[in-house]
Amino acid sequence: MDFNEFLNEKYFQVVLPDTAINYKLSYQYGGTELVAMASSGKELDKEIEVDNRGEIWFALETAINKELKKRKQLFTVEQNHHYEGAGYGFYFNMDYLLKLLNK
Question: Rounded to two decimals, what is the model's pTM?
């Protein structure tokens, strides 16, 4: 499965200590951000019950990077704390890829 298939999967599940939340991942073509949004109103209710945006953001970042590593991608994501839209925004971190290209 390649990166586009990864992004087009129906849901991306993140497991927290007391619940599991399904997210839909997307990005804007030409943009530099990945966005994770609760996949439904039911999943959004689970987010609200957790009541800790930082915990969810960290769990999302960790789960996405784990999946990227498993798929041998040459980049990671990092939390974008300035993201103001719905859901959770992440920057693409291309440092490793640039190191490989600049050798």
Answer: 0.82
